[in-house]
């Protein structure tokens, strides 16, 4: 890694900023979730995410040149998996507090570790085994009490949807690991946003809501937050190794907890507090083997 890229302090700041941006996105989506169908939310989120991403690429003088691709099918697979993951994650946040929905997203590195063994022939190491065990324990702490209570408030659906979203996200990230050998980070982000917009638009015949001014503004903000968060996350991986950023996954969850408490009046559950260290410890272990993936963003 050269001196220009080895700036861990800047990488950490950008990781924290990306957590703030992604929390803002999820807050906006949750705020409109009762009135706006998921597909409609995804369309607006993706459409307006193009604005910061295109501006960023133009500043770097990578637009439109960086959009040239030699792997159109790879982009289609990555974007399709990412769009499906967004459908599941946005559906989950309608049933769960923002903090719990965000915590489930953190399962993606663990699913990536498993996928690396099953699909890419990577070694099943102590780190991966530990990550899986810790993640399963964390999920048990979250889900088992709901099973005993009957899950009447829809939380079990939320956990299932959020876990499926994390699994699909892991598939998308494994695809990125593969295609980033020839494709730029800008092209990967751009085509994902375009495919997600089209996937959301395809749900229009199923019925969209007539938006109020407030709902429209929140959907626009969700896109701007999402696009800016993606840029910040990409740059964070450029300037700091994954292993150095992993501890700050804890900091990234401070914002969803605060949003639930301040904006939605949702208290922190005891299950969440017990699951949090277990699942994030698993993420940290999985991330120790993610250094090559982190380097794929440093282009």
From TrEMBL:
Q: Which organism is it from?
A: Vreelandella aquamarina
What protein is this chain from? DMT family transporter
């Amino acid at each position: 890694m050269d001196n220009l890229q080895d700036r861990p302090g800047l990488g950490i700041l950008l990781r924290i900023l990306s957590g703030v941006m992604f929390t803002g996105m999820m807050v906006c989506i949750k705020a409109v979730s009762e009135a706006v169908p998921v597909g409609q939310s995804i369309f607006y989120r993706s459409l307006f995410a193009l604005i910061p991403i295109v501006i960023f690429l133009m500043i770097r003088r990578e637009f439109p040149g960086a959009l040239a691709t030699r792997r159109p099918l790879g982009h289609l697979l990555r974007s399709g998996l990412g769009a499906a993951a967004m459908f599941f994650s946005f559906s989950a946040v309608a049933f769960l507090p923002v903090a719990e929905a965000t915590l489930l997203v953190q399962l993606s590195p663990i699913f990536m570790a498993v996928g690396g063994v099953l699909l890419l022939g990577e070694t099943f190491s102590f780190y991966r085994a530990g990550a899986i065990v810790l993640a399963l324990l964390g999920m048990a702490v979250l889900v088992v009490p709901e099973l005993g209570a009957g899950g009447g408030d829809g939380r079990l659906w939320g956990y299932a949807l959020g876990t499926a979203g994390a699994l699909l996200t892991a598939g998308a990230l494994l695809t990125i690991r593969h295609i980033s050998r020839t494709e730029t980070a800008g092209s990967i982000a751009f085509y994902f946003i375009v495919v997600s917009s089209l996937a959301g638009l395809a749900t229009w015949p199923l019925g969209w809501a007539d938006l109020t001014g407030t709902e429209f503004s929140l959907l626009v903000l969700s896109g701007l937050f999402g696009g800016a968060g993606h840029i910040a996350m990409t740059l964070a991986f450029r300037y700091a190794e994954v292993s150095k950023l992993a501890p700050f996954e804890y900091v990234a969850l401070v914002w969803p907890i605060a949003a639930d408490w301040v904006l939605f009046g949702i208290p922190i559950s005891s299950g969440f507090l017990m699951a949090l260290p277990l699942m994030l410890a698993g993420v940290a272990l999985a991330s120790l083997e993610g250094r090559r993936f982190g380097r794929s963003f440093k282009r």
